[in-house]
Amino acid sequence: MLSLKIEYEVPEDRTLHVQLPREIKPGKHEFVLVVDEGETLEISPSEQLKELIGSISWPEEPLDYQRRLREEWP
């Protein structure tokens, strides 16, 4: 296991780009990212919910699913 420690200025889009050292062989690896809590933003529950919009994939059209469920009611 190789441990790396870097300091990084987090941009507004909250992305992280890391160039791995040559010692890391190409292929599948598991990474663990630990972030010190430092200063955090207070995000309201409604803002947290907005962040989830469009992130859930559903195997069928939601309205069709709802209608199918209602057909099962007595």
What is the ordering of alpha helices and beta strands?
Answer: HH
Instruction: State the total count of DSSP E strands.
Output: 0
If helices are DSSP runs of H or I spanning 4 or more residues, what is the number of helices?
2
Largest sheet: none
Gross morphology is: elongated
Mean pLDDT level: 86
- Please tell me how large the radius of gyration is: 21 Å
Portion in beta strands: under 5%
Structure in words:
By secondary structure, the protein is mainly alpha-helical. It is elongated and about 60 Å long. The chain is built from two helices and no strands. The mean pLDDT is 86. The chain has helices spanning 45-51, 62-71.
Write the layout of secondary structure elements.
Elements: H1 45-51, H2 62-71
Salient structural properties:
2 helices; 0% strand; mainly alpha
Brief synopsis:
It is built from two helices and no strands. It is mainly α. The longest helix has 10 residues, at 62-71.
